[in-house]
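Hi team,

Filling in the usual template for the complex we talked about on Friday. All components are listed, including any nucleic acid strands or ligand strings, so the model treats them as one assembly.

SUBMITTER: L.P.
PURPOSE: interface mapping
COMPONENTS: two
RESIDUES: 1099
SEQUENCES:
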Amino acid sequence: MNRFDFIQPITIEDAIAAWRPGAAWLGGGTNLVDLMKTGALQPELVIDITHLPGLGTIETLPDGSTRIGALANNSDLAHDPGISRRFPMLAEAILSGASGQLRNAATVGGNLMQRTRCAYFQDPNAACNRRVPGLGCDAREGENANLAILGWSASCIATNPSDFCVSLAALDAVVEVQGPAGRREIAFTDFHHLPGDTPERENALKPGELILALRLPAEAAQFATNSRYLKLRDRTSFAFAIASAAAALRLESGRIAEARLALGAVAAKPWRVTEAETLLTGHIPDPALFERAADAALAGAAPSGGNAWKIDLARRTAARALVMAAAGTPARMPALPASPFGELTGEPTHA
Amino acid sequence: MPDILSRPFRFGSNSGQPITRRDGIAKVTGTAIFAADNMPDRLLHAVIVPAGIARGRVTHLDAEAAEAHPGVTHVITPQNRPPLQGDPSAKTMMFSFRIEVLQDDAVRYAGQPIAMVLGETLEAATEGAHLLSPRYDVEPARVRLDDSPSFAFDPAGFGLPADVEHGDVDAGHRAARWVVDATYETAAQYHNAMETHAIVAEWDGDRLTLDMPSQALAISCAAYAFYFGIPAGNVTLRSPYLGGGFGSKAFATGPQVLAILAARMTGRPVKLMLTRQQMFGPVGHRGATRQRLRLGADDRAALTVIDHEGLAETSSFDDFVEPAAGASQGLYAARALRSTHRAVRLDIGTPGPMRAPGEASGSAALECAMDEMAEQIGIDPLEFRLRNYAETEPGTGRPYSSKALRECYMQAAERFGWAGRPLKPGQMRDDNGLLVGWGMGTALFPCPMFAAEARATLRPDGTALVETSAADMGQGAWTALAQIAADSLGLPLEKLEFRSGHSGLPDAGVAGGSGHTATAGGALHAAGSDVIRQLGEIAAADPASPLYGSGNAGFVARDGRLYVADDDSRSEAFAEIIGRAGGAAITGNGTASRPPEDAERHAMSSHGAVFAEVKVDPDLYQMRVTRMVGAFAAGRIINPRLAESQLMGGMIWGISFALHEEARHDPRTGRIVNADFAGYHVPVNADVRGLEVITVHEDDPYVNALGIKGVGEIGITGAVGAIANAIWHATGKRIRRFPIRIEDLSTA
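RESULT (copied from the run log):
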């Protein structure tokens, strides 16, 4: 590990004032510290934000929206009764990610800031435009079976690893940030960037900006009865998605009044597909309709390497998530959240 | 550093009893001291620098930058590495590997140590290692089986099965009414014990003390003594606890030799513990294989031939070739049988023995091919195996020392509910619409026995000390061996002090080959019996003893008393016999090895049958093993709880082999891109649902005096094929490459 300065400010203002280029915010540390150990990231200043006041609360605001402090940990959020009642898809997505130990440590803000798990980003010996602009992309000719099929560019084919963020994108969350120039808000779907020619610009944060909270609009709770997160992976727990989808429907008189659909593990950002949502709106839910919506969701998909197989799989995942959403949110969180095996009866709770 | 266990926490009775691990509480409460827990005064921390390329030459290391870092004390490179007294390329014994210890600037695989940095703290040494910033002359990496030409290789010579040919193979092919000709691939797997390789080395003159997890204490001492030019007796190796080994802790490794060298060079104790990432390279692995199976069967579903060709990777500088085709040698009664091997030299670390070396990969391919043949013929896979049941060893005709495989098939099938399984695939669904498939495979593992020594001392107070340098990797040797020792002395376990895990004790041989309980246990049994024999002689010659004059009848030891063999009314407590004889402790010595004539006359193997149920999502292809039942016949079971746990562990590794485990190389740099536990998958608890083990008793008078065959590795065999066959049965898709992934099913 390289040598770095370490500070623990106790006010947000001090934290922001302390920031300088080359600094990194430290929350739960579940991603940053690993990358510092391997040498993939070498911040000169680590600012521990876990002592900042007021960033860990989950509250309902007067306008009916829900505000989640950036330092709330993933476990607390997933098990918050209000969250699981109003936004069960968020809880399901969180519980399908990482492991219990990691979820206990990882923060909400950190979840948004997760770096790609592309092996070449994580390996300091490899060329990666996202880690070092202009160095090249070893993933293009390397092990890329699980990399992007949507929104990738010649300079980067990485995917965003978060499950939580897929559901946030579907529910129109808002990110509250504060920086040297004051506070502002970023629509969730604008938060993560596609790589283009500047894959190193992973998100919309300006230099020195710190995530304070997430906000879910009151309307997002209208999907509570018909929303699911579905995640495919090569083992049942503690594995990143091969394909995932967050699907939410608001049904009125048997018709889809409003739909939300976002895909995970397919692009450098959670892949919200409003075209598919429009296609669903006004129709009676049925599998053929969901297939058409899923087709629309994958429009424009193209393999970035040896991953053409993922396109059809992502399409099937999207269609299934819609079927599951239409069937209704389960009364209790499945023992294996977000899993095709989650509905097995008698499943022990050990996800 | 405790050499023995703290006082045991729970005792039951002895052999045959499901006693819990005597070291269990020490381990789960953190009081067990593992090698890397040792922190002697003046300790230096060592960190190796792994090569970032797979082939080429190191052209530059920034030693100045590293040395300038505060806390870094030494940078060891090929330029300044002190000499070794033994040639690191020498093969001094059957289990020797060529080791990489900075002998030159060549890079032979990614992850090879190219320098070592020492520091006052681990952090300083780690940063020093980063600062070396190596530069290379790079040559193209060869990491895939097709990247180099193959050559014929006979795996004999490493204690592995040699290539064989029995019967007329060509005639077997010609006589076939049914033919399977299929090629299977298995991925490279890396031993990833919970405890990575560690060592604390300290010199005192020409005497060396090592705290290091070891599966083979005497072999390790001899190897290190060779490299450093000292008598083996000058090496003290303490290995009271191992956090797993799986075959990778039985040999001297380059990083550990470098740590010892660093300790000698600096005159200070040196500690090295590999990171998880560093486990992928210098400490062995299970080499990737490609296996062609050609089976022939006649009209009556009798195998006319098994023709098994194995191709496996080895390194550019040493030979270890996963002997996969050997798995076909002793199982089915084919009229003709051939198993041959070829090897490919790649820019990888040298493979080595990893739990069920050869048998695991070979069984995976063989059991799949058997299933494909049963499908072709149109008979039940179990029925097909029964029709080809080997009553004597295929090829040689030797009788088995014991073989309860038929009982394993029947009991496991019954328990699993195999009857009524549809022959055709894709016929079963569960209530949730998931595809359900059932598959099975036969398990087979040889039961070798090595040489071991043990010592037993009966103290005047009637308690005993037994000693042998056995290795408890977590399998429970400390418990099972103590049970055997207590029985041999006729003592309850609480009267026994068991010392192990120290090279100063009698040599218990290697904990490997599934032979440790039989081998070390045999020596302990002999040592205890020697004590009882001496005690009997004393009593029989002592007119004051109730046993006086009964020497011809023989004696039986039980509950701390010696009885006349045929007369329970005549007995005396051990302590009384010793007391009258002057109160001196009685020491007995024992050795164990298998008489060559027994080994020659009989085929000896453990057997088993594994049945698996998988469920597969019909649209999304996610799959999961939902049930497994394995029945195993492995001679006498000393501790059913530990044996079943071992067998379960093997079956779980079967899940891992079938569905998860794979080291993936970048094709250009040759680096392993998933060298950590986030990327290198092994099953989590949620991947292992119903798992049931049945042990079928065998009385085997030939394998060894105790009738023990061993259970350490057989659980993997059979299981891999059973799972792949179940996936076919669920989906109709034959995936002939392991691990089987969603990607494979979605593109098949």
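MY TAKE: Chain A touches chain B through 43 residues (CB under 8 Å). Residues 223-327 of chain A form a domain with the Enolase-like; domain 1 fold (CATH 3.30.390.50).

Thanks, L.
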